[in-house]
Amino acid sequence: MEFSIKDIIEAGEGYHIEFKEFLDKSFVEEVCAFANSGGGRVILGVADNGTIKGTHTDNSFRSRVQDSLRQLQLYLDIEIRVQDNLIIVEVPEGSDKPYACSRGFFIRNGANSQKLTRNEIIDFFQKEGRIRFEELRNEKAVFDNDFDERAFENFLNMAGVSRSIDRMSLLRNLDCINDEGKLTNAGVLFFAKDIDFLMNHAIVVCVLYKGTEKVHILDKKDFKENIVENIDNAILFVKRHTNVQYKIEGVQREEIPDIPDVALREAIINAVCHRDYFDRSSNVLIEVFDDRVQISNPGGLPSGLRPSEFGRKSVTRNPLIASLLHRINYIEKVGTGISRIIQAVDENKKSSVEFEYNSGFSVIFRKLDRTSEADLGESSEKTKGKNAEIILEAIRDNPTVTREELCQITGLSIQGVEWNLRKLKAEGKIKRIGPAKGGHWEVIDYSC
């Protein structure tokens, strides 16, 4: 399936397309990145914003392009062709990765090229494989039956893409269909009618629990739409089941949620975008408890990202998905999500955030105590004494009792239990022996 250069430029830069207004030192870096990824085109004579500026196309200039390509190590058969006042450099996916240039090793990360060490590239391809899930053809999908025109139109509106390009050409430029016009896995995620049938493990599961344990389910939703709607629905689910306080100044009312909107949105998008889609055993899972919200996805840190680099360096597991989400402004800039979450939580001051990564990845928002004394079970001396007495009795019976178990025994929230424990310790009635994990309580004074 052939497409005109005008169509490609109209669609903009992406995982397989790079515009270069000039032949500069970064040119060979882009070529190297394409060779180490899925291949692509570098179009010389086009500005980053898609404006056609034109470039020299004479033999002397083409020789300069060839000289730049000779920096690539190892050799790769790269086609150079001239169309009007542009030079198109067709870079195939390399069969002998990793490739390097004089400035180092590079790989494609969304619509950008990122420098890596050789060992990181070797490790990346050993663990992730040379074929990416998002680029594979979906064997179940039949385009005429499964393609959702409504989802496609919504995407074009959000991305601001011109309707002057025919649908199939645009889908191919977006890498959502292959050369035979078959939907890729990325195409299914963004534009399929029934993701449940075609890719069941891509469903987003949201659960609301009563209390702080996984015992009583109050609400559960399996979101089975396209990836964009699943993100939106998951965000709404959490917001519907978490608290919002109101700050009124004059005639203005400000909403202050337990979890800042920016942090919640980034965490859910991160889970859906960066999960390991080769792992078909589990879904993105969002769990809402009385004291926390936990967002988990299969796949720990991607290859090439060490724990010490977490939050400071970006390595994208699914660069095509990231690129498509970037087009519709669901991702502002690759690599900034974790920093934005931390900053938003710090400014909000109503929750804390933790990150866990091993075989999976989790973001845990813990709600901080911002309730009134009445909410903590101390609205009266009678209530206060009753709760303290119950806690002392529970500790006497079981010195290793947990805060979560005390919640169930007293009926208080986790914040209420912690308030009472702090007060009992301050009054010298109890003390903690040993660490938080593995230690136990000791009752010193039974009087309340």
TrEMBL record:
Q: This protein's superkingdom?
A: Archaea
Q: Domain Schlafen AlbA-2 spans what residues?
A: 13-116
User: InterPro entries, from UniProt?
Assistant: RecG_C_sf, Schlafen_AlbA_2_dom, Schlafen_AlbA_2_dom_sf, WH-like_DNA-bd_sf, WH_DNA-bd_sf
What name has this protein been given in UniProt?
A: Putative transcriptional regulator with HTH domain
Question: What is the scientific name of the source organism?
Answer: Methanomethylovorans hollandica (strain DSM 15978 / NBRC 107637 / DMS1)
